[in-house]
Fold Type II toxin-antitoxin system mRNA interferase toxin, RelE/StbE family.
Amino acid sequence: MKIDEIYYSSEFKKSVKKYSDLKKIIIQRINIFKNNPFDSRLKTHKLTGKLKDCWSFSINFQLRILFEFISDTKVGFIDIGSHDIYKSY
């Protein structure tokens, strides 16, 4: 499966600015994600509870991207941050 389109929420765009020092690795991980959202390096996993319709993948040990599948080839990036981003939704 390959991702053709990524939609970025305003919250994601706002949050990603906080991590400008990690821009290179964020771009690398998003490129890996586009080619294979379930690449083992990303540790992609489905969430539960209030976020049961969402998924997450890791940028590094602390940082992750919260997203949802819109279709097989389209995703929406909801937010980026530490594990605490799950508490915001």
